[in-house]
Design a protein that fits this description.
two-stranded antiparallel sheet, extended, calcium ion binding, mainly alpha, Recoverin, domain 1, 8 helices, two-stranded antiparallel ribbon
Length: 163
C-alpha cells in the first residue's frame, strides 16, 4: 500500500514539474501568470488534445471570477494535474488516424492530393470535417464497406457555433 502511495506521489511530482516547465515558457513576466490565449498551447504541449469546446470549459474553470485575460499557475496546476492523472484528452491513436486516411484514399495511392484534402476538409455532405474536428473522428466508427463507400457514424453532435 505504501509503495503504491509512493509511486503515485512520484507521478504527481513528475506531472507538476512538466506542467510548471510548460507554463513557464509562456510566463514572460515571470509572475506565475500566462495569457489566457496560451492555455491551449500549454495543454497541447503536455500531450492533451481537447476540442475547442473542452478548452473553453477548461479556461472557464481556471479563470478568475472577474476574468483578467491571464491565468494564474496556482489555479492551473491542480486542474491540469487532475487531467493528466485521469488521462483525459488523449490524442487520437495513430492507427485510427491512419485508417481514417486510408478510407479517404479510395484510389489506394498512399496519399491525398491537395484538392482531395481541401474537399474533405470543407465539403463533406455539407458538413466540414474541420468543423467536426478530429475529436469527432476519434469518437466515431469508420468502416469501409467497399473502396468507394464509407460509413461515418458520429456519436456526439459538434458544438453549436456562436457569433
Amino acid at each position: 500500500m505504501a509503495d503504491e502511495k509512493d509511486r503515485e506521489e512520484i507521478i504527481v511530482a513528475e506531472f507538476h514539474k512538466k506542467i510548471k516547465e510548460a507554463f513557464e515558457v509562456f510566463d514572460h513576466e515571470s509572475n506565475n501568470t500566462v495569457d489566457v490565449r496560451e492555455i491551449g498551447t500549454i495543454i497541447r504541449s503536455l500531450g492533451c488534445c481537447p476540442t475547442e469546446g473542452e478548452l473553453h470549459d477548461l479556461i472557464a474553470e481556471v479563470e478568475e471570477e472577474e476574468p483578467t485575460g491571464y491565468i494564474r499557475f496556482e489555479k492551473f496546476l491542480p486542474v491540469m494535474t487532475e487531467i493528466l492523472l485521469e488521462r483525459r484528452y488523449r490524442p487520437i491513436p495513430e492507427d485510427v488516424l491512419l485508417r481514417a486516411f486510408e478510407v479517404l484514399d479510395s484510389a489506394k495511392r498512399g496519399f491525398l492530393t491537395k484538392d482531395e484534402l481541401i474537399k474533405y476538409m470543407t465539403e463533406e455532405d455539407g458538413v466540414s470535417l474541420c468543423h467536426l474536428g478530429w475529436s469527432a473522428v476519434a469518437r466515431s466508427q469508420l468502416t469501409a464497406t467497399s473502396t468507394s463507400q464509407v460509413q461515418v457514424i458520429l456519436l456526439p453532435q459538434p458544438p453549436e457555433r456562436t457569433g
